[in-house]
Amino acid sequence: MSTLLFAASVQAQVDINLSGAVAFRETAYRAIRAIFGPNLTSQNPADAAATPGELKLVWTGTIPELFGGQTVTIRAFYNGANAGIQDLTQNRNVEFLQSSTPGDTNVIRLPADIAFSSVFQRSTVFTTPVLEDLRFGVTPVFFVKSSSAPAGLTNITSQQYRTLAANGSVPGWFLTGNTNDTELIYFINRDPTAGQRTITQRENGFNGNPIFYTWDANLGQFVVDPTGRTSTQIRDLLPISGPAVSYLTGVDAIRVNGGANILAHNGNRSTLGDYSAVANDHTPVITGRYTQWGYEHIFNRPTASQNIKAFRDRLVQAIDVDLETSAFSIPISKLKVERAAEGGPVSPVE
Q1: What is the reported pTM?
Q2: Shared domain check, 336 and 232
Q3: How many CB atoms lie within 10 A of CB 69?
């Protein structure tokens, strides 16, 4: 600890930049605020009900247990699980908010120091250099229907997903079993930066090139989407679009009709009882009945400074505490199953 404090004492300020998975942004928000505690002096955007769901945030204050009296600035941009790994391996500059002054929308391009991800590094094309990887939890991924989709659409199987992704749309009866559901149901896909996209394709054995659409509100119809949507775009499209199916993690799925549009997967739901924004019983995930999930990873370069690694370790500790009461994710310590890759076999923890 004395070494850390000495290192901090010769710096004017400690700056640490985070990028990566959007699914963990609410957990990370609460954990980072907990680390600062009463020593947080400013935050941008300002503390408000919607702030934990923001994609870009900056915090400034002190963290005496790690850095003494030095001013600490933490910047975050949740740009996608695959993107976070790319940021670290390619030393890319990331567009963060410049300051923690509430309302300041100026941006600054800086390299990321730490990245959250919902996939293993080897599941991406960014495999070198090998990053340091800590796993701290798991997060389920859900298929979610639009509000205009048939009421009888309550479940989707891996076979149905493969057909939907290969064609971009299917008649409603193919998913509901009701021959009166003749309207087409379209597939809305995540963008390539998303770990959720990797998890969903691998979990359901889809190895091709998916066809997918987005909703054009001006035209009032679906149009071919060449790239895919962000999680927040999908979250906001599903309540207003025509009949569609996409996928989200709980932090966004709960905001589509209060979670009522979440579908079962292969006949299983991820929770016992209705999905809630407050607390959920994730027994089906914990025991291996619901398997569409990914580990929560935090990555850093092996060459990261002691300041970065000290903050990373403290962040994981704070996240572990938060996950004990999280509605959307599960600490690894509670899991009774494990897997070695996204979509891989789920087996009992030995």
Answers
A1: 0.86
A2: no
A3: 11
Alpha-helical regions (H) of 238-340: 250-253, 283-286, 306-323
pLDDT value at position 350? Answer: 81
Q: What is the CATH number of the domain that holds 342?
A: 3.40.190.10
| pLDDT for 48 | 64
Question: Residue 52 — very low, low, confident or very high, per pLDDT cuts 50/70/90?
Answer: confident
* pLDDT reported for residue 24: 82
Question: CA torsion, points 195, 137, 37, 45, in degrees to nearest 10?
Answer: 20
Please tell me the distance from the alpha carbon of residue 210 to that of residue 303, in angstroms, as a whole number: 38
- Stretch (H or E) spanning 119: none
DSSP β-ladder status, 93-97 and 107-111 = antiparallel
Q: Are 119 and 36 members of one domain? A: yes
Task: Please name the amino acid found at residue 328.
Answer: F
pLDDT (mean) for 212-217: 97
Instruction: Share the mean pLDDT of the chain.
Output: 94
Total domains present in the chain: 2
d(CA 342, CA 203) in angstroms, rounded, equals 7
Q: What percent of the chain has pLDDT over 90?
A: 91
Angle at 63 between CA 7 and CA 18, to 5 degrees: 85
Distance CA 169, CA 146 (A): 14
Max Cα distance, the chain (Å):
72
In a shared domain, residues 82 and 38 = yes
